[in-house]
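Observation: inputs received (chain + zinc ion).
Thought: call the complex predictor directly.
Action: predict_structure
Action Input:
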Amino acid sequence: MTIDSEDLLSRFLAYVQFDTQSDHHSETTPSTAGQWELIWKLEQELKSLGLTDVHVTEFGYVLATVPATSKKENVPCVAFLAHVDTADSCSGLAKPIVHRKYDGQPIVLPDAPSQILCVDTIPHLHDKIGEDIITASGTTLLGADDKSGIAIIMAAVRHLTLHPEIPHGKLRICFNPDEEIGRGTEKLSLKELGATVAYTLDAENLGEVDYESFSADRAFVDIYGVAAHPGWAKGTMVNAMRIAAQFIDALPANISPERSAGRQGFIHPVEISGTAEHVRVEMLLRDFEVDGLEAKGKHLEDVVARLRAMEPRARIELEIKKQYRNMRYWLEKDMRPVEYAMEAVRRVGLVPTTEAIRGGTDGSRLTERGLPTPNIFTGFHNVHSEKEWVSLQDMCKGAETVIHLAKLWEERA
Ligand SMILES: [Zn+2]
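Observation:
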């Protein structure tokens, strides 16, 4: 199987030059206007590849069908998803640079020469010597998360339409907005998608197939003080900001993202806003297991109870909102979607690996809603930073994996 790598590359380079940063403060879907530009482009590309049922929903989901080539009638419909938005950690409007046949020397990014990609500090980069590496120019993301996923799906679909002799069932394609702000599949109709099993192309390392994500809640603490004129406030004023400072100080320092890794969870204050009268603190609670997540919520309740006892004149409210759950809880009941993905990776000539994702994917929510959706590698690295990079050869292997996966579901049907 030979993927047309130059076609894949030119599509990828075009996608990363769209500014598709999402914005969690926005109430609309997609959350930003920039995403629409890429959405319309993808719609056109799918149409010119000859796909059927190409449709953009009112919320910016690009859907399309690759009709079945198999004569079997019971092949499950498989969907492949990737997200169009980029993280808000820095600008997503990339000026991509292709480093052909990477020689292993440090890559100095021209727009910010302090940004250097070096094989000593980025172990995976060493494995890519001789390959074609794509980086941004130093002041922006590359946006390989997740435009590499989009390019991989496009390349796989293109290959399949050029090779109708490859047997597969009906495939559905979905490019969605707003993954980075946790709303990637919120307004996706599973009925409209119409798939039995799905895969997100949104994992990192070559050969990676993930089926575990964090379980996640969001917590809000609202602290209402007592207002008074500061000149005559003695004995009356209760300053909400001082209580907020005590609240944050009481959070366990070790159970934080900056001090945890692997399978450890955390409590992460992400946003604070307010005045002397009212402060709101927003936190992310993360754990792989639901009981660990509940323990973190309980910990917040205990801290709040202590502060209420210390300052009964203040009003302190805690609200915990469910976000998503570890997709393993559902996938372990029927591991075929995961096993087939690992077999597809082997057929490409790679060794499958798996990681417990320290975050959520669109697949976490889809799986919980009843559509099993493991996450497959795209080859992107150092995402959400100016040093983000991806190897063209890895993206081609991603496209091969997608094709093998489509074939496997047909073969085993
Ligand atoms: Zn992503």
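Thought: report the result.
Final Answer: The pocket of zinc ion is lined by residues 83, 145-146, 179, 202 (CB under 6 Å). The radius of gyration is 23 Å.
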